[in-house]
Amino acid sequence: MTTTPWHNWGHTESAQPTERIRPTSTDEVAAIVRSARDRGLRVKAAGTGHSFTGIAVATGVQVDMSALTGVVAVDGTRVTLGGGSVLHDLPPLLDPLGLALQNMGDIDVQTMTGATSTGTHGTGAQFGGLATRVVGATIVTGTGEILAVNETDNAELLPAVALGLGALGVLTNVTVDCVPSFNLSCVEAPEPLETVLNEWEQRIADADHFEFYWFPHTESALTITNTRLTADAATSPLSPMKRWFDESLMANTFFARTTALQRRFPGMTPHINRISTRLTGDRSFSDRSYRVFATERRVRFREMEYAIPQDQVPAVLREIKALIERKGWTVSFPVEVRAAARDDLWMSTATGRATGYIAVHRYFREDPTEYFGAVETIMKAHEGRPHWGKMNTRTAADLAPAYPKFGDFLTVRDRLDPDRVFTNDYLDRVLGK
Ligand SMILES: Cc1cc2nc3c(=O)[nH]c(=O)nc-3n(C[C@H](O)[C@H](O)[C@H](O)COP(=O)(O)OP(=O)(O)OC[C@H]3O[C@@H](n4cnc5c(N)ncnc54)[C@H](O)[C@@H]3O)c2cc1C
Predict the structure, then answer these.
(1) 111 CA distance to ligand 1 middle (Å)
(2) Cβ neighbours around 150 below 10 Å, total
(3) Given CA atoms 84, 88, 92, 94 in this order, what sign does their dihedral have?
(4) Cβ pair 171, 82 in contact under 8 A
(5) In terms of DSSP H, where are the helices of 249-353?
(6) Helices 369-381 and 313-327 sit at what angle, rounded to 10 degrees?
(7) In angstroms, what is the span from residue 52 Cα to ligand 1's centroid?
(8) CB–CB of 77/95 below 8 Å?
(9) pLDDT given for residue 27 in this prediction
(10) CA atoms of 95 and 178, how far apart (whole Å)
(11) pLDDT at 163
């Protein structure tokens, strides 16, 4: 059987699966896994392909999860979702229940399970990544067994299964502990970079959700400070015209045009970046949480993101700034800086430590190797852990010491996927064979 080729959003990875199958039940998923295993084929559940790494590459059977979506059950704040549910489809389902996701990242076009499997996170020093809210799942293992994993059934597997890199099985549903619906007020402002770096720890402690972007070749940061409000608090949303102007025209169209211009005339980058910091990000508004957290990204890029100890963020950002100046590179895309609470998921980039995240980007037609490689060297020197879904060159041997429970995760992998039905080249590299 021939399938249409697959590639990811960032155009960094592609694949030609032998088969693509769209199951409609957990039993069908189990049958697919057993059949593939008998035929020596590998299996990979498909999210929406928003990982920049090869984590989602399917060479054998690609399992299209799009028939397993929506709310399966509700128990108080705990909502069980089909394993193919996409984040932007959740607000119309959760809001009528008076519920919302506790925190979100920059976009909402990923699947919930793709996001949790790679450790996707937003920002907020008191808040963990999406996987920290996973309280249960149904998983089809590499032998085709169907396991419930939650606080009472197979509870010892939960810290591995909640953030499993797609290496342990296919999650046909996932139970997420939501929070009561809430509004967010958002203040975006350009500020001097040095002020923001000097006040980093205070800013993240004072705000519910603080992050900033630094445009290389400038001394300015665009800060974003979100404050949680109750669901009935008055809001002043962006008008559709203002949202279109800020997010579609400025953040996407303007950015696309200037990125193209900078590719032709790299010398213009510092001027354009200075203009960008002035033209974007000086506004305040409030709205339902999910309309504030997530924005649209239409300019295609590639990304590497590292988790480092939270208090090392200012030092590391200054090192990256010095690196870009020393090398004389022109970098058009901003560097994004966020925070998250420590958690206890075995493969979480925030496991055991309060975490700062620093992400570097390059336009997708530019070769990121030299820039990302040099930044990665800095990150390694600061005990950096790479986002599992963003570009990195790490191997199991050098990642193992960074994760206290790495060995325990591999033991669970041996138990749930003894024949490595769910592996691919990326997992072979970061987890071992
Ligand atoms: C524009 C853009 C913005 C982003 N913003 C952020 C951000 O703000 N914060 C952040 O942390 N990350 C961010 N990311 C990274 C992104 O959130 C992750 O890479 C995420 O995994 C993408 O989800 P997906 O549905 O596309 O999963 P995919 O990339 O398709 O798959 C990821 C992994 O999940 C596995 N998987 C998917 N479904 C299942 C299932 N049902 N059972 C078992 N395994 C499964 C896949 O097999 C694969 O191993 C961003 C990426 C892009 C392109």
Answers:
(1) 7
(2) 18
(3) positive
(4) no
(5) 255-264, 269-279, 289-293, 313-327
(6) 140
(7) 9
(8) no
(9) 98
(10) 11
(11) 98
Q: Is 220 in the pocket of ligand 1 (CB under 6 A)?
A: no
159, two tokens: 């810290």
Q: Is 421 helix (H, G, I), strand (E, B) or coil?
A: coil
297 half-sphere exposure, CB direction, 13 A CA radius: 19
| SS3 state of residue 61 | strand
266 pLDDT band, cuts 50/70/90, is confident
Dist. CA 359–CA 329, nearest whole Å:
17
Q: What are the sequence ranges of the domains in the chain? A: 182-386
Please work out whether the CB of residue 44 comes within 6 Å of at least one atom of ligand 1: yes
pLDDT band at 249 (very low <50, low <70, confident <90, very high): low
Radius of gyration of the chain (CA): 21
Report the distance separating Cα 169 and Cα 21, nearest Å. Answer: 16
The three-class DSSP label of residue 170 is: strand
- Amino acid code (one letter) for 289: S
Written out in words, the top-level CATH class of the domain with range 182-386 is alpha beta
Torsion of CA 9, 11, 17, 20, to 10 degrees: 20
